[in-house]
Amino acid sequence: MAQHPLEPLDAHEFRLTAGVLRSELDLSDSWRFASIELKEPTKVEVKAWRPGSPVPRAALAVLWNRADNQTWEGVVDLTGERVVSWTLVEGVTPNFTVDEFHEVDAAMRAHPDVVAALQQRGINDMSLVVVDVWAYGRSMMPEKYADRRLGWCDLWCRETPDGNPYGHPVSGLKLIVDANSLELLEIEDDHDHGRPDVDVEYVPGPWKGELRTDLKPLHVTQPEGTSLSVEGTELTWQHWSMRLGFNYREGPVIYQVRYDDRGTVRDIAYRLSLAEMVVPYRDASFDHYRRTAFDIGEWGLGFMTTSLELGCDCLGEIVYLDAVLHDTAGEPYPIKNAICLHEEDNAVLWKHVDAALGAEVRRMRRLVVSCHVTVANYEYLVYWRFYQDGNIECEVRATGLMVTTPFELGGAPPPTGTVVDTQTYAPFHQHFLVARLDLDVDGDGNTVMEVDSRALPISPDNPYGLALVTEATPVRSEAESARDYSWESQRSWKVVNPSKTNRVGTNPAYKLVPSGSFPALMDPQAPQYLRAPVIGHTLWVTRHHDDERWPCGAYPTQSTHDDGLTRWIADSEPLENTDVVLWHVFGLHHITRLEEWPIMPVDTVSFWLKPFGFFDQNPSIDVAPSMKNGDHCHTGAGPHEHGERGDHSHER
Ligand SMILES: [Cu+2]
């Protein structure tokens, strides 16, 4: 029984949703569940809800009928066990599913035409073959297949059963598949660049190198346990509190982030998540031109979430949370250890050494909410971190196996990638992530201010030209809401509560500090850009609406155009002193490297949300010294550090 309206659906509720829809609508076996998730109560309802009140429970399910490829949305009241609504959504394709990924792989490997095509290339052992299905953008699909649930497939062949699955692409050979009927519609045989002799293995055994032996054990222990606590889905740590959610698409969702500021519990964010990821490969060749993935909208971070293992994925004293999702029959399954909660030591939080007082230093501890996903060849590791000084950091690490293909023997390597091995290159691509940040700074009446730094010209008041000021400009309406990062002005954005003031009379705010943004570098008329114009700007601001969740539209799979952000801002709603949502675009501009072959060490990107006048002074001043029983840290405390007299004339 759910204790709070934002708890994710449990196994019983998934089963109930599928059961009620199936029986009330008399659905045949040709129907499949693309997704089932909690139908979140509105923000207004959640804010009005109090413990002890009835917990509203409803599910939103997206189904499609394999017989006619039509998509329907069903809402089920889980308390009354009845269908509340059942709506046809025309002209859309719901997300591809884990079931289909496996079904297409199995069906294609068993297909005589595929077997024959591979035999022609000397591949006879189909158990070594991997078939990876990708979803299309409709503008790239052959017109005659426009009404189908269409996939295109890469083919790969391992060297040995325990070899790298993505080490040996079958170049120039693609399969076009109907994912509903599992029909092989076409084999596209464009070229054969052979199978270069490449060094692809990474698993010891097939990888013949020698492992390092000179690392001594490193143990992270917390003999008294962890300082975080979890009750139901509510997580508290230090002065922070928040509620954890999880769904098929966003994976982890963090709700109701609050900070206990000396006895006053203050709102910071209502809901934080990653809402879309767009990965265009920037290579026009046959092997790659249709390779654009929407890893969140097409596949789902939740569906792709893998179990974490203690000592490998997370070190130390860990609290794991399991997740529950469902297959296309609506049958629930658990993901053991889906979310990892733990504390990390992160070196120094603050410090000063004074000749007279000695060193005063605090260790930094942070709370980490993390989750790993594997989308075919790639992994994304997501870390939401909460700090003692009020900072919030979202870090994403990309790792796994890059897509590579051979180029023509004796030919020049393509300019759109990096050569990583014999006659083999890894095409350039980009990973655009869109974070949906529903901040509520001391409540939901907020204004987003764009803050630019400016150097003042030399003048009688500024004779040395050193004066630097900041200029803050409100983002007044949705018409102005697509904002770009500016290196020249070190731009950032503050989410300000104009109705509140801090100790010095300014408005409390949280500041979005981008650190991983890059221009799309794509023609705005490019079909993949038209599907995802969100990637064209660093920040979008919208007025909060409960149903505005997916920045490239609810159904980006096989889409031709944006049905999300650009549509939402078309009415140019006013944004000042209202409930704003920030959509921050960040990610990896992946110019592939030789060192990322054959497996990629993590590439890391992040953004920060930092308090700006939210607290009246350093909120971490109350963090206790790490040495207990009266011991002090003695580092750097001697007068010899500053000379005999111990003056500290070079304080800066
Ligand atoms: Cu990449």
Short description:
With 652 residues, this protein is mainly β. It has helices at residues 11-25, 43-48, 98-110, 112-120, 295-299, 527-531, 565-568, and strands at residues 31-38, 58-65, 70-77, 82-89, 129-135, 150-157, 173-178, 183-189, 229-231, 234-237, 240-247, 251-261, 264-280, 292-294, 305-306, 319-326, 332-354, 358-375, 378-387, 392-400, 405-406, 417-421, 424-427, 429-439, 447-455, 468-474, 482-483, 492-496, 509-514, 539-543, 580-590, 600-612.
Task: Describe this protein with a few key phrases.
652 residues, mainly beta, Nuclear Transport Factor 2, Chain: A, Beta-galactosidase, Chain A, domain 5, 3 domains, eleven-stranded antiparallel beta sheet, ten-stranded antiparallel beta sheet, 7 helices, 9% helix, 39% strand, disordered C terminus, binds copper (II) ion
**Uncertain ranges:** 637-652
Helix content: under 10%
In terms of structural class, how would the helical and strand content be classed?
mainly beta
Full CATH superfamily name of the largest domain: Copper amine oxidase, catalytic domain
The biggest beta sheet is recorded as: 11 strands, antiparallel
CATH fold category name of the largest domain: Beta-galactosidase, Chain A, domain 5
Shape: globular
Write out the distinct hetero groups bound to the structure. copper (II) ion
H/I helix tally: 7
Mean pLDDT figure:
95
